Amino acid sequence: MSGLRHAATALLLALALVGAGTASSASAPKPAAAGQHPRTPLEHLVVMLQQGHSFDNYFGTRAGVDGLPGHVCLPQPGRRSCARPRAITGSPHVAFVDGSAAQRTAVDAGRMDGFVRAQDVHGHAASMVMGHYRDRTLPVLGDLADRGALFDHWFSGTDGNAVANDLFAVAARAPRHVVGVPPHGWRGVPLIFDRLQAAGVSWRIYVEDYRPGVTVRTAGPGELRDGQVARVPVLATARFLRGAGLGSHVAPLQRYYADLAHHDLPAVTFVVTTQHTEQPPRNPVTDQPVVRAVANALIASPAWSHAAFLLTYDTAGGWYDHVRPPTVNGATLGLRVPTVLLSPYVRPGRVVHKTYDAAAVLRLIEQNWDLAPLTRRDRDAASLLPVFSFRHGGRQGALIDVAASRPPVAQPDSWVLYGGYLAALAAGLGCIVAVTRRSSARPREST
Amino acid sequence: MTLLDDEVERHVVSRPDSAPSRSPLRLRVATVPPSAAVLALALALGTALRFVRLGAVGLNSDEAVYAAQAASLTGNAHFTTIFPVVRAHPLLLQVLISPFYAHGVPDTPGRYVTAAFGLGTVVLTYVVGRVLYHPLVGALGALLLAVMPYQVVLSRQIMLDGPMAFFVTAALLFVALGAQRRDGRWLVAAGAALGLATLTKEPAVIMLGSCFAFLALTTRITRPLRHPLTGAGVAVGLTLAYPLLTAVAGGGHGGASYLLWQLSREPNHTFAFYFTTVGVAMGVGTLLIAIAGLVAFRHMLTWRETLLLSWLLAPLAYFEVWPTKGFSYLAALAPVVALLAAVALVRLGWFAGRRRLVALALAAGCAVSLLVPSVLGIVNPTTSGLAGAGGTPGGRAVGRWVARHSPADAQFMTIGPSMANLVQYYGGRRADGLSVSPNPLHRNPSYAPIRNADLALRDGTYQYIVWDTYSASRSSHFSRRAKNLVRRFHGIPVHTERTGSGKLLVVVYAVTPR
Predict the structure, then answer these.
(1) Hey, what long-range contacts does B32-37 have (CB within 8 A, 24 or more apart)?
(2) Which of B65, B409, B509 to mutate to test the interface with A (most CBs of A within 10 A)?
(3) Burial class (CB in 10 A: 0-12, 13-18, 19+), A200
């Protein structure tokens, strides 16, 4: 009898635990404190992944960075003249060829002179790969770099295309030659979200123009190449599509702002755009306000005091970059991409010259929340923790690229006003006192 | 001495003799002059009504501007980048209160200064009444003014009108002294007082017209001519310090813009405004008694009434004609109204028998009818219904929330400039009102218009929209516009202010352009 009672108790306890686990996975993520505690003061990490720009393309003319070389001129197939870097301001009006083959041609065994040749399919427009945005042409990005740490040796995770790098950003692995997401999705690829889920660390992916019904099961070929399924590997991973958990882990971007306002930002957040991606031929000037909105909402929120915002790009998009990508653990990295880290614990205006790649983000998550690495890549990736300075208190946030609503106030000379008004007061009172004294001495006239 | 003076004094002096059988204690009480007792009551009530619970409500929009001007003058970093020192009016009061605003974000110190000016006006009213008529008239006039809601409300705010009324009443006293003693030198002192009044708020220069109207209508001060001319010269000389100092200090352009704006403004109230809103705040009973007194005792009118009526009617006529009408603009007339009511009551009380009782009842009733709304305006400032008593509901709380919870460079869009001023004052963040006209002829030059609110929000220029019931009640059009923008830019309420009963006051929305 006693054994039966014990068995029943154990069964009830087990059911309760299972129920609690199910409830926690289905409900909305709570702050990091609900699961594994972070090992540093960083309670929130927001990673925003944009597309298609090299470091030289965005920051090549910025002072203090490893930017565009002085006299670079790349050969142009079929033409005598070479192509020099040229400043552009808006859209390149060209969708460059991107991927491992194009990168191999562009890198040209380390000579870094095949970029125009790699875009030969575009004819004369191929020389557009030498375009670059002058410093301050992109106010959002420039302001981000001013207020955070700018990495001038941050490379794409793989030399593959955007689909491969979007997967690499959350898996630390990706097939090199892939056009789009396979129809069956990413089978057998552990994602960082598996680790977070297991550790009870809250996470969420906010997707611009998110369509909840579109997953790898329902997506058409276009979605698998560059739609939300390609950009969000979770939507192409069967185990995340089962049950009600997906709804709480993948949400429209608009919910990001609401979660910030309601103090419900998860510990680990990925922000993915599907429209304003910056991928050529899109105009970054019109796309980057989304970056500004995402960053400013975080900076203005109470979460900011213990948060970090990392903006990076999945691929170089075919644009010219003069630094040869290194090889890590036998894998060739992609070209340099712009990456900026903002946090109250990061010194503003700092330029980090150390070599990093996309796996460093995963390493940071794993270090901060004490998670096991996914692959050798994230295990061996350079740590981002030295970029932070946790010993000093967090700095107050300053919003990104906010134009003053009106001209600055011009103040007059205060001392002139003080002296003048006090002299006038003294003169008026002196006049009254003088009249009072003189008139008091005079006898009154009767009425 | 006038007929009134003689009769009242005789009456007051004769009272102890008419009651020889009273006990020594009662006799001592009875020998205290009624005027002294009334004056003591006036000072006690006047002090309490002006200094108690001065910080109960936050600054209103105008107060925020004046206090911020004072703070900017001292170089207080919280204000210098947002509030220009030179705006629409002279700066004498701002200079005087500025030492209290050199650090931090204080709000009430300036109110103590203006309350002191308000109490000073009560004292001056007593002196004017005493000089013109009798101590009892002065004391009763001081009592009526001390409890008058209009004067109480203005004294409790950092407004220029209260201190201006003090200097104008001082000028009235000097003119009265000059007329009573037939000594034109007092006009020089009156000119100096009017000059200081003008350096506090420029409309006080109108009172020069009152002075000259009185001189033209009576023969009390005729020669030598140099005294009125010197007095006018002193007043004008001090007045000119305002534009000169503004120009020399480097704020001349702003001053010119304000003049242009003031001259081209459209009327903001009807002609009935002063008779309804301000009249009620001065006390309907007080006004009726003053008017009835003038009619009933018209056979007793002397140069004294001419002086008081000149002091009353010249500015009233001017402000009725002037298109812009403000609740506080007639502050300098309140002492005159109080004195006219007081002299009517004392004249009525001079008669023996039932009329004296009626006068006493009227005086008591008048004082109580003024005292009650004044007290209610202090105890329940937001629900008393007394104009100007409640500040801007929720403004201080929201401003302080903004200071604590928004980034230093955040910018706010409000329905109108009133809430914008409070967000700027307490929050230290830039704020602009939707209702500010893009047409420079239709807006206060201090305010920047939002030329294209939709574009500004899409550009990320503003991160928050503040909706408040006070501004919404003033402009339903811009209230709807603000709510539309909140909807279009995915506004998320991040802070709400409510009254104790749960009524919505202010909502701060975080907005995002995408």
Answers:
(1) B33/B135, B33/B136, B34/B136, B34/B139, B35/B130, B35/B134, B35/B135, B35/B136, B35/B138, B35/B139, B36/B135, B36/B139, B37/B139
(2) B409
(3) middle
Q: Where are the domains of chain A?
A: 2-21+410-440, 32-57+138-387, 59-128
CB atoms within 10 A of CB A445: 9
**Virtual CA dihedral for B326, B332, B333, B336, nearest 10 degrees?**
170
A7 in contact with B, Cβ within 8 Å: no
Residue with the bigger pLDDT between B46 and B268: it is B46
Query: Number of Cβ pairs closer than 8 Å across A and B?
Result: 180
Helices (H) and strands (E) counted in chain B, each on its own, are 25, 5
Counting residues of chain A whose pLDDT is more than 70, the rounded percentage is: 89
Q: What is the number of structural domains in chain B? A: 2
CB A62 within 8 A of CB A145: yes
A25 near A245, Cβ under 8 Å? yes
Q: How confident is the model at residue B383 (pLDDT cuts 50, 70, 90)?
A: low
Task: Tell me: do B402 and B345 sit in the same domain.
Answer: no
> Given B355, B379, B403, which residue is the final one in a domain?
B379
Q: What was the ipTM of the complex prediction?
A: 0.89
Please say whether the beta carbons of B122 and B327 come within 8 A: no
Give, for A350, the enclosing helix (H) or strand (E): strand A350-352
pTM above 0.95, yes or no: no
Are residues B364 and B402 located together in one domain of the fold?
no
Provide the domain limits for residue B322: 110-379
Mutate to test the interface with A, among B5, B74, B87, B95 (most CBs of A within 10 A): B95
Express each pLDDT in A231-243 by its tens digit.
999 999 999 998 7
Q: Is the pLDDT of residue B304 over 60?
A: yes
Of the candidates A425, A391, A228, A397, the residue with the CA atom closest to the CA atom of residue A299: A397
- Do A442 and B183 lie within an 8 Å CB cutoff? yes
Chain A residues close to B490, C-beta within 8 Å: 254, 257
Give the distance, in angstroms, between the CA of residue B433 and the centroid of all CA atoms in the same chain.
25
Name the one residue in this structure whose structure tokens are 């004609």: B321
Structure tokens at B475: 């402009």
In a domain? residue B66: no
- In the CATH scheme, what is the code of domain A32-57+138-387? 3.40.720.10
